[in-house]
Write a structure and sequence with these properties.
Elements lengths: L2 E7 L7 H19 L8 E4 L12 E6 L2 H5 L3 H4 L7 E3 L3 E2 L7 E7 L5 H12 L3 H8 L11 E5 L6 E11 L13 E7 L2
Antiparallel strand pairs: 1-3, 1-4, 1-5, 2-3, 6-8, 6-9, 7-8
Helix pairs in contact: 4-5
């Protein structure tokens, strides 16, 4: 990763950081969808410089790419035009050369609904719902304190939480990202 740009969220008492994150992330997700390849991968990845293992994700989104052209292809200023009262968009900069720490930011999904899992189990194993519910009766919904962004799927209309997990990497791993700017294998510089 050679280039990056920061977007700082300006939450206040009237507008929460979570709400701003939701709106910014939705627009950037659409921008990534516009530049995805045939494998639904993009050359642009996201980082959260003030990431903590709890909500919220901090107030800054850092967007990385190996090419300045790829960052420009997102048309960030145009995409986020309606949010300029709530964010500051930096300029595209070069990643400092002395960065030795790399991390991944990946989506983490949890099995959070025993009833949904029981319905799925019943369908897959050709058993009744009551029997499947007994299998999952003792299961408690996974709870997490990982930071997340509330998003709405434009394709299904569903609301969901995009849980984001940061993992350290022993070395830089070059690759691509999904259309949420995340990858469990491709690293971004950590600074």
């Amino acid at each position: 990763m050679k280039h990056y740009i920061d977007i700082k969220m300006l939450g206040d008492t009237e507008i929460s950081l979570g709400f701003i994150w939701q709106k910014v992330y939705a627009q950037l997700h659409l921008a990534l969808v516009d530049i995805k390849d045939k494998n639904d991968q993009v050359p642009v990845g996201f980082s959260f410089p003030y990431y903590n293992k709890a909500f919220p994700l901090g107030d800054t989104l850092r967007i990385f790419s190996s090419s300045q052209k790829d960052v420009e292809a997102l048309h960030i200023d145009d995409r986020l035009q309606n949010l300029l009262d709530y964010i500051n968009i930096g300029t595209i900069k070069e990643v400092p050369v002395n960065i030795n720490i790399h991390v991944t930011f990946g989506r983490r999904q949890f099995k959070t609904n025993p009833e949904r899992l029981a319905r799925r189990y019943a369908k897959r194993h050709d058993v009744g719902l009551e029997e499947a519910l007994r299998v999952y009766k003792e299961m408690k919904a996974d709870e997490t304190k990982l930071p997340f962004i509330n998003i709405k799927s434009f394709s299904t209309g569903q609301h969901l939480r995009l849980f984001i997990e940061k993992c350290a990497s022993e070395r830089e791993q070059i690759g691509k990202f999904n259309t949420f700017g995340l990858s469990k294998t491709t690293t971004v510089p950590w600074f």
